[in-house]
Structure prediction request, 749 residues.
Amino acid sequence: MTEFEEPLQPRPPMDSLGRLRRQGEGAGGGAVAPQVDPGSPLTALDKGTLFVNRELSWMAFNRRVLEEAQDGNNPLLERVKFLAIASTNLDEFFEIRVAGVMEMVDAGLLTESHDGLKPTEELERVRTDAHAFTAAMHRTWSDSLLPELVAAGILFPSLKQLDREQQKWVDGYFQREIYPILTPLAVDPAHPFPVLLNKSLNVAVLLQDPRQGRRAPRMAVVQVPRSLPRILRLPDTGAGRAYVFTADVVQANLHELFAGLEVLHTCTFRITRDSNLEVDEVQATDLMTSIEKELVKRRRGEPVRLEIDSDAHPDVLERFLKSFGLDSDDIYFCDGPVNLGRIMELYQLVELPTLKDSLQAPRRQWRWPSANDMFADLRDGDILLHHPYDSFATVEDFVRLAARDPRVLAIKQTIYRAGSKNVMVEALIEAAQQRKQVTVVVELKARFDEEANIQWARRMEQAGVHVVYGIVGMKTHAKCTLVVRREDDGSLARYCHLGTGNYNPTTALLYTDIGVLTARRELGEEVAETFNMITGYTRVPSMEHLLVAPFTMRDKLLRMIRTEIDNKLDGKPAGIKAKLNNLADPSVILALYEASRAGVKIELSVRSVCCLRPGVPGLSENITVTAIVDRFLEHSRVYYFENGGDPAVYLSSADWMIRNLDRRVEVAAPINDPELKRRVVDEVLGMALLDNVKARRVLADGQSERIARRDNEPPLRSQVALLELSQRRPEVTEASEDERRKKGKKKRR
Prediction:
């Protein structure tokens, strides 16, 4: 559900925030909601009064994910899925964010976070939250989900509870599939502690040689192979569907690996390691090779967390702390499966539709029999796509048809997370093979997608695609595609797709995102300038329509907020709405506070990190923040400014964070078509802000609470409402599209 896409670094000076004076010890999420004198200047306020700690805000977000696993209104297997997501989210949080804080502590840095916490204070609070969260996850599994799964006929018997036939099957499976690939690793003076892979599941074993009497027990480690499934289904016995964890099977058969030794104790564990990449792009002559080397190091980075069975022997814990260089606070005891993320396999294994959300295929609003039809439609007007309610196949068709159109001369695209299978990348390769000019900006540092992107980059280069890796020191996070085509009159025209989501067909089914297909000349020209800026030495272009980070977006955002303040003071219509993944940029937050103090109403939907404190008297009483966690990951980013009655509406790849505004190439595009603007405001923004089923109200202390509906207020679950709305829109087939064109009738959607 989350993206941890860059390492936490020592924090730079903060302009006006650098002049803030501390007025006490208040800081971070979980603190008592502050009170502010409306007449106080913001520069006189304590950092902890102004900002919620970023890491603690993220923990509050992941608690919302866990709440979905605890919500009995969700189908049972969907709850299992949410628990797995909460667990994998926490893994990534430790690999990137906690690892970064620990690096700062180890380096002795005293730099304060934006909310005024020193690294040691921040680490202490994060550890406290993470220990409580880990315990809550395991209670959710053992006390809630597991009993309900059993009641639904999905059983997890212990190996001692298996009947004869099941035990025979498990023994046979172990001998055939598991035993041949197990490797026992002794730990003694002749065998130093093995370097264990990041997040690999292992079994620690204490062994006794009966011939050596009372000598200290020996220790060994056995890795549960990653090539094996984590959950095994047992043969049916009529009592229900029975499953066992592979790790339990390995534990129960360790005597097979250590013949002649007595197994005294076993426990499962895993180590989470620092997974930040450290690549010097200025010095690296081959960025791709440098990143490939760093990916190998990532699997063996410095340990940051030890997860282990709650009944682990003290001798095991002592050896681990010494070997891994961890403190006792870095041990997270697990009362149940050490890696709860592995229960995602159960969601995939169990085919019981009544225990899952109903499947609804995305609607195919546009379908073109030829490239000529597609480009003619785009010349007629912009097309808005809201995924996953609208089919992502329309975007794939845009690239595929362009690749095969003999009139298309060039295609340019940014790729951030392409995934393992991608129709569009295959189409770009086909276009290059047809001698079209194809340029692709591949982001090699897309967190946890580096390997897939490197493979695609190599394939495209071999096919003749011009593959570039963006601007040194910056990630290219923008989502843009540009097609250059020669028209019937001999002129060249540009067609574009601009969106909020990755060009990834898998996530397009799981994330909510919006995009626009357009033939507008002014947008095409500025998208072309943006590509030239990324791939060459072109100076930063002057943009009239697009907002491009890190060059113009921050200043334009602050100016638009300032305009809303001025309009409010002048008695003109004023208001700000936004849908974001994260809100953490101090200067933007301060500007929003100023707008609130001027009386501007601000409505925000922020999925995860929110460092702004809403609803604080004298500071942000005109700001409301909600957060939605539902079956789809909320990922679309939309900005709305009332603009004196002529609303400005943008879709964007950028959140309001320092990394997006200062250290990435991002693009925000205006929605100009009045009907499409209405759809974005009513459907994308409006539905999210009106949700009273899956939305939580974010509080001033950084925590959140369920929105309580008023008496007789009908429930509105935004994602369900949007699914129903999309299903009511007619699908357009090639035949009906062709028929519509013959009749000369065109209906814009």
Summary: Residues 4-31, 279-285, 743-749 have pLDDT under 50 and may be disordered. The longest helix spans residues 119-151. The radius of gyration is 28 Å.
